[in-house]
Amino acid sequence: MLRIIVNRLLLAIPVLVGVTLLVFLILHSVPGDPVATFYGMDLAPGDDLEAMRNELGLDRPLSAQYLDFLWQAVQGDLGNSIKTRRPVLQDLSQGVVNTAQLAMASIFIAIVVGMSLGILAAYKAYSIWDNISLSVSLFGISLPVFWIGLLLIWLMSVKLALLPSGGKGDWRNLILPALTLSLASIAVISRVTRASLLEILNEDYIRTARSKGLSGLVIMLRHTLPNGIFPVITVVGLQFGYLLAGTVLVETVFSWPGLGRYLVDAIKFRDYPVVQGGVLIVAVVFVVINLLVDILYYALNPRLRTAERG
Amino acid sequence: MSSRILEVNDLVTRFHTQDGTVHAVNGVSFYLNEGDTLGIVGESGCGKSVTVLSILRLIPEPPAEVARGEALFDGQDLLRFSERELRKVRGGKIGLIFQDPMTSLNPVHTIGSQVSEVMREHLDISREQANRRVLELLDTVGIPDAAQRARDFPHQFSGGMRQRVMIAIALACNPRLLIADEPTTALDVTIQAQIIEQVKSLREQFGMTVIWITHDLGIVAGLANRVIVMYAGFVVEHAAVADLYADPRHPYTIGLLQSLPNLGEDEDERLVSIDGRPPDMLQEPSLCQFLPRCRYAIERCREELPILREVGDGHQVACWSDVRFEPQGQDL
Description:
The complex is a heterodimer.
Chain A: H1 2-29, H2 34-39, H3 49-56, H4 62-74, H5 88-123, H6 128-142, H7 145-159, H8 171-201, H9 204-211, H10 216-253, H11 259-268, H12 272-300, H13 302-309
Helix pairs in contact in A: 1-12, 5-6, 5-8, 5-10, 5-11, 5-12, 6-8, 7-8, 7-10, 8-10, 9-10, 10-11, 10-12, 11-12
Chain B: E1 4-17, E2 20-33, E3 37-41, H1 48-55, E4 64-73, E5 76-77, H2 83-89, E6 94-97, H3 111-122, H4 127-140, H5 146-149, H6 159-171, E7 177-181, H7 189-206, E8 209-214, H8 217-223, E9 226-231, E10 234-240, H9 241-246, H10 251-258, E11 309-312, E12 315-317
Parallel strand pairs in B: 3-8, 3-9, 6-7, 7-8
Antiparallel strand pairs in B: 1-2, 1-4, 4-5, 9-10, 10-12, 11-12
Helix pairs in contact in B: 3-4, 3-6, 4-6, 6-7
């Protein structure tokens, strides 16, 4: 068990280095830099852009800048924002918390609704319920997030006045953005759940379960689901990554003060340290989630569990 | 005269597939008395498994369809039962063992829980009582160190041991009838013999009635008291086991017996095989399905479908041609 965790963490290192390097290179190959963006508008005559670049260390070779960033990041320091001049970690922390809240709520909804739809579709395969489940999935996966978001605001906030249209407040503010964000994942999770369960339902041990006189529901929940859950876990882990990416749009539509919106702003202003720090945080979260997925796999599969005991 | 426990009449099962309708079981009838061991013999795909699985509705519907017939179990027609009523029979009054023990147990549950589950479903007993009985059962079916093994998972058992677990599950609720669907086909020969001995001794112990499906005539000879031979979804011959081997009356049965190797015979003698191939089950049968391969066919065979007719005491055959076969002192 421990070996697997250590193994995964070691594997995460090249992933994280790769991600930061890629982001770093892309950022620096985009035309424009923070100095031009921030100070470009109201330059007093005689202001020396080069001096400012020099002050920020932007005139040094790229390799030196990257290694510096890496070295500081390893020590837990993501540098200072060029725009606000505050430490990046401090600036990002609130956004990270808000986004985490949104993503957690979304993945929770996606797992509960998606798996329920998938189980229903497999349990009543080729029936009207199966088709309803399929329709919901197609709906969820086909419609763009921002459009559904606006539609929900129009319906729930404007017409019915049930829920706030955006901003950060109590739990009610979370419902609409979380729901919007979860739709695509609901679709994917329900489809994978259905396919996986239908495959398991053909297994010999399901026939054994039926020959014991168990009810369909018991067979589904006790015999089929525990075996069919593995592909679902994998997909949930991957979906969490897509959710983090999807928050950018949803946060914009619902004015949710999360990491995504913050990052988009930072990209606009070429606030290098903020972008790099933000992406690094997202990448770390992604790696950790996938580590959790692996651990869950291990914990749920008796063949792996008992193999270690001897 | 022992009492009739199961009587199947004119059972028809079809599979509606993309290629057309497969006529898997075409009007099969047989019966079973208390204490009988009935062997159902036939080659792969002849409908022997589908027949018994149809009785308990354990085949996937759709694509399968149990189109006709009745299956009287203690006088009640199982084919008219609701799913809820059938569930009480499955595992409770009729226990089943399947062909492949490697895939017949659920990999994520312990052996113990898979055995106790069936008792918790059918018997009114507490968890503790069930667990105690699990250990008894595992012991009975010959699994050593039951207390320890009950906590193990299927992958920690060998094929033979897994089949013993399946037997324990099938016997857990003291069923009146045990259906064994090729339970030893996937096992190697020594394990096969052990499992058969085990079932024999359990049969004495519990006074069980057994249906044993196999394609191995040798197994049937040692285990069953009556045999039905199936071909292409039909019962072609039905006889007491001694009669079948001494006086087979259907050309297919004769072919099967001729294709068996005989210990102690002239080693140069070649085994006889049955020419041709089994028929295409997509055609609705209108004549004897064995006709294209039959050496004894007469004119009537090309005109109408043979029905099972009595040719001796409890010996039935579905053949127009009056075939007799002189076994050369075969001792099975």
